[in-house]
Amino acid sequence: MSNHELEIVEVIEKIKDLNAKKVGLQFPEGLKVHATKIARQIEQETGALVIISAVPCYGACDVADLDMIDSVGVLVHFGHRPLPLNYDLPIIFVDARSNMDVIGCVKSSIDLLDGYKRIGIVTTAQHLHLLKEVSVFLEKNGKEILMEEGAGTIKGQVLGCNFSAIKNLDADAFLYVGSGNFHALGIKLFTDKPVIVADPYLGDAREIEEFADKILRIRYARIAKAMDAKKFGIIVSSKKGQSRLELAKTIKSMLEDSGREGFILLLDDVSPNILLPFMDLDAFVMTACPRIAIDDSIMYKKPLLTPQELEIAIGKRKWEDYEMDEIKYGI
Ligand code: SF4
Q1: Any atom of ligand 1 within 6 Å of the Cβ of 161
Q2: Is the pLDDT of residue 191 over 60?
Q3: What's the chain's Rg over C-alpha atoms?
Q4: Which of 50, 176, 182, 331 shows the smallest number of beta carbons within 10 Å?
Q5: Burial call 183-198: b when 16+ CB within 10 Å, e when fewer
Q6: Which residues pair with residue 196 across a beta bridge?
Q7: What pTM does this model have?
C-alpha cells in the first residue's frame, strides 16, 4: 500500500471514531486533483457527506476551520502540518507524504556540496519522513548533518515564512529536499549561506544563488522606489495563521513618527486587483504572508514591501542589514 493510501485509511478510521456526519476536505492547489477521488472513498466508507473547500489554500497558515465551521463536524486538511494556532474545528492533518525516491537527487547534490562539511538539511511536510535516509547517505559521503526543531515546526521542517528550525544551525551550507525555488529562496535570504536544492521531481540538484541574486535586485529596486512614498497601505490578513495586527500598528506608528501616513487595510486574499482602488496610496507594506512581497512583486504596480524592507526605505535600517520577514509561530 502506498503512503497516500495508508494515510487515507487512517483518515477514514479517525472519521469513523469521531462519528462525523459531515466532513470537510481542504487541499493545497497541487493536491486538489485528488479531491474527488478521496471524497468518493470517504463517502463510500463512512457514509458521511463530504464538502470540499474549493477556494485556494496557500499554506499551513490557511486552514479553513472558520470557513467551514457551520458546514462540517470535522475538517481534513492535506499537505501541511498543524501550526500552534487555536483551531475552531476538530482537524485531521494529513502530511500527504511523497513516495518519490530522494536519494537520486541527493546523489546529484554531492558535487555541489563539495567543500562544505556541516550541512543543514531541510524540507517540507511531504518529505520529512525521508530526511533520515538523506542524512545517512550524506554521512556516508563524509558530511556532518545538522537538523533542529523550530518554534511550531518539527525537526528539519521549514515553511515559506518560518525558518526557526535552521536559525541556530552553524551550517556551512543547506540542502533543501523538495521541488521549486520557493523554500530554497527563503532559506537563502534568511541565512545568506549556500543553498542547494535536491529536487526529487526533476531527479537532479541545483544552486539557488543566481535566482536569489535576481530576486534581491528586484527587492532593492522596490525599496528604492518606496523611499519617496508618503502614504502607505499596511496590509493585514484576516486569515488566522497570517494575522499580525500588532505588527501593523507598530508600522503605522513608525510611519507617522517619520512624517508619513499609514492606513491599515484588512483583507483575506491579497491580489493586485484588490489594491487597485486605493489609488492615493503610494506603496504598501505586507504584514500578511511575507512571500507575497518577495515572490509576487512583479504583479504589483506600486512597491509592496516587507516590514524590514520598509525600515530600509525610511532610513531605520541599513541596506546591508536586509533581513527576510518571518511569521513567528508558537512564540
Ligand atoms: S504565511 Fe505564506 S509562506 Fe507562511 S505558511 Fe502561509 S502561505 Fe506559506
Answers
A1: yes
A2: yes
A3: 21
A4: 331
A5: bbbbbbbbbeebbbbb
A6: 175, 207
A7: 0.93
Q: What is the pLDDT of residues 55-91, one digit of tens each?
A: 999 999 999 999 999 999 999 999 999 999 999 999 9
Domains and CATH numbers, the chain: 3-94 (3.40.50.11840), 103-207 (3.40.50.11850), 216-321 (3.40.50.11860)
For every residue of 208-233, which 3-state class applies, written as one string? CHHHHHHHHHHHHHHHHHHCCCCEEE
**Percentage with pLDDT > 90 across the chain:** 93
**Could you tell me the sign of the dihedral formed by the alpha carbons of 213, 217, 222, 228, in that order?**
positive
Identify the residue whose C-alpha is closest to ligand 1 atom 3: 160
Task: List the one residue out of 241, 227, 192 whose CA is nearest residue 212.
Answer: 192
Please state, in angstroms and rounded to a whole number, the distance separating the CA atoms of residues 80 and 126.
8
| Nearest CA residue ID for atom 2, ligand 1 | 289
Q: Decide: 166 in ligand 1 pocket, CB within 6 A.
A: no
Nearest to 326 by CA among 302, 307, 313, 310: 307
- Name the one residue in this structure whose C-alpha cell is 512571500: 291
pLDDT of residue 120: 98
Does the C-beta of 186 come closer than 6 Å to ligand 1? no
Ligand 1 geometric centre to CA of 316 (Å): 26
DSSP code of residue 162: B
* Residue listed under C-alpha cell 499551513: 60
The 3-state DSSP class for residue 107 equals helix
